[in-house]
Write a sequence for this structure.
């Protein structure tokens, strides 16, 4: 019962804050960097997709070699979380691109 409350009240809340923080970092950081660039969604989509897939495939390549140590494994988990959020972000930007082209 204690594990359930710990999981629901601590871990899930922290995961949501971390997800929202990384999402805002990608949004605000890229938008500040690209504020004068036309077709901002396309470039934002490309950067998010390249970052997400780049980290993902890098982690797959080095998984058995360096991610087996406990401290490095924790860093690999954080990087994989970041790559998944970057990929979700790229899907959101891709959706905006599709809607903009349909109008």
């Amino acid at each position: 019962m204690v594990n359930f409350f710990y999981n629901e009240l601590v871990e899930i809340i922290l995961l949501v804050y971390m997800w929202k923080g990384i999402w805002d970092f990608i949004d605000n950081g890229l938008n500040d960097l690209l504020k004068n660039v036309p077709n901002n969604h396309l470039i934002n989509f490309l950067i998010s997709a390249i970052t997400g897939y780049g980290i993902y495939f890098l982690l797959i390549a080095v998984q058995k070699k360096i991610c087996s140590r406990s401290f490095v494994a924790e860093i690999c988990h954080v990087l994989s979380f970041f790559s998944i959020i970057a990929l979700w972000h790229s899907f959101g930007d891709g959706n905006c691109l599709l809607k903009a082209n349909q109008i």
Summary: Helices lie at 2-33, 40-66, 70-102. The chain has one domain: 22-102. Residues 22-102 form one domain. The mean pLDDT is 76.
